Amino acid sequence: MKNTPELLKDMNDRSREVFRRVVEGYLESGDPVGSRTLTRDFSEKVSAATIRNVMQDLEYMGLLDSPHVSAGRIPTQMGLRMFVDGMIEIGDPTELDREKIDATLGNNSADVGGLLDRIGSALSGVTHGASLVLTPKHEAPIKHIEFVSLSPDRALVVLVFSDGHVENRLFTPPPGQTPSSMREAANFLNAFVEGKTISELQRSIKQEIARRRQEIDVLAQQLVESGAVLWDGEGEQSERLIVRGRSNLLGGDGEAEDLERIRSLFDDLERKRDIAEFLELAEDGDGVRIFIGSENKLFSLSGSSLVVSPYMNADRKVIGAVGVIGPTRLNYGRIVPIVNYTAQLVGKLISDRN
């Protein structure tokens, strides 16, 4: 089967116009677009029957669908993808949208987390969708590490940084851990941790384990390795994902089943189960990325679209991401530049403060 760029290339001008107008009409109203609607302002004088024939061809190609008999057409997921990739016009955010995002910087607080929370709320308000902000990890040098056993399958790592910042992170320890093995692992780490950031510590842990393998027992070694995975962001349970504006998706008149799927999505997000995958989505490509429906396993159940962009520090390293979740009929031409602008603003903000 041909991919969407090939399909777009093979379409004649009339088919392209019919397809574009159906998609634009659907994105604006959420309703199927009929042939009579298109004839009223079509670029050439054609009958409704001619347009219906074109729409049938587009449906056969998998680009349009008819939700009801004798109804108009709506774009399929493949049709939306082709429109987003090949036909959408992406400009700059409007002055009003920029002002609303910029207004969050008015309170020049030293609390980066609070500032990113306000940016997330502003992004949600501007886009009328749900916003996601993945905050950067704390990268100050570490002063002390402590492991605390909470239960056989639950433990806490306490990280004390040189700037006074303290983080508590829950994780699942390897089977068979004891309080004494955790103390031994903490002593091992604290012997050389001071002055290193989390990233620097993680890079050196494997080297240290290799050099000092005989100094710790097998269980303590497993705990250190488990901690290394935790600090790399895999399975991390700290409050790094800010979700704002879920009511924008839950307050509509959608079908009960669809609303339940969206509730399930946000329950998952708020339990922070998908933080690592969310950042991975952003890191896979430069600039804004768009995931429509089932293209993204994170959001396929909700039938939603995700527009996401990474933000970088002064060294051009990806340290977080911002995004918007909405229905598949998002106004992509407006949302994409807003997300891009917000990501650049957050990156500059973090770089300037550091």
Describe, in plain words, how this protein is organized in 3D.
The chain has 354 residues and is an alpha+beta fold. It has three domains: 83 residues, Winged helix-like DNA-binding domain superfamily/Winged helix DNA-binding domain (Arc Repressor Mutant, subunit A); 157 residues, 2-Layer Sandwich (Beta-Lactamase); 90 residues, Enolase-like, domain 1, CATH 3.30.390. 47% of the residues lie in helices and 17% in strands. The strands form three sheets. It has a five-stranded antiparallel sheet with strand order 7-3-10-9-8, with helices on both faces. Strands 4-5-6 form a three-stranded antiparallel sheet. It has a two-stranded antiparallel ribbon with strand order 1-2. The longest helix is centred in the C-terminal third of the chain and has 22 residues. The radius of gyration is 25 Å and the shape is elongated.
Give short descriptive properties of this protein.
transcription; Arc Repressor Mutant, subunit A; elongated; 47% helix; 14 helices; Heat-inducible transcription repressor HrcA; 3 domains; Beta-Lactamase; stress response; Enolase-like, domain 1; alpha+beta; five-stranded antiparallel beta sheet; single chain; three-stranded antiparallel beta sheet; 354 residues; repressor; WH-like_DNA-bd_sf
